[in-house]
Design a protein that fits this description.
alpha+beta, HIT family, subunit A, 5-stranded antiparallel beta sheet, 5 strands, 29% helix, binds guanosine-5'-monophosphate, binds zinc ion, HIT family protein, HIT-like_sf, catalytic activity, Histidine_triad_CS, HIT-like
């Protein structure tokens, strides 16, 4: 795609710190380095977000995640955990519209990454939970 920053990185029109490359994917350091080793894994083919994947390409990209995760663990033995994040659409913090998976190594509670999972368990009855599950299940194709 002509005006996509990550397509330009894949095509070497914009420089990047490459971590891994094969025929389907490219992995490189995120410029912001939320934590040391923060890596982005992207399909070489332009895919806007998770809703845009063919199953085969989804398989190819997700199959590479453990490969990069293990490389990070080996590279940084002081790493204590790894967050894997995939933002989709602006509200969900996607800022580059070429799908990418963040791999963010974790070094301690005071490193520069945080995430909040609310707990709204009290807001839904068992009946409502069942309705929600069925509503989604009907749409799985
Ligand atoms: P998003 O916010 O869409 O989930 O993540 C986009 C990421 O791309 C951000 O973390 C941002 O730092 C990174 N990014 C944006 N432009 C560039 C760039 O030109 N080079 C690199 N290496 N990372 C970039
Ligand atoms: Zn692109």
């Amino acid at each position: 795609m002509t005006d996509c920053i990550f397509c330009k990185i894949v095509d070497q029109e914009i420089p990047s710190y490459k971590v891994y490359e094969d025929d389907q994917v490219y992995a490189f350091l995120d410029i912001t380095q939320v934590t040391k080793g923060h890596t982005l894994l992207i399909p070489k083919k332009h895919v806007t977000d998770i809703f845009d994947y063919e199953p085969e390409l989804a398989g190819e990209i997700f199959a590479r995640v453990p490969k990069i995760a293990r490389a990070l663990e080996q590279a940084f033995p002081e790493m204590q955990g790894l967050n894997i994040i995939n933002n989709n659409k602006e509200l969900a913090y996607q800022s580059v519209f070429h799908s990418h998976i963040h791999l963010i190594p974790r070094y301690g509670k005071s490193d520069d990454f945080s995430i909040h999972f609310g707990n709204n368990q009290e807001a839904y009855s068992p009946v409502e939970m069942q309705e929600i599950a069925e509503k989604i299940m009907k749409q799985v194709k």
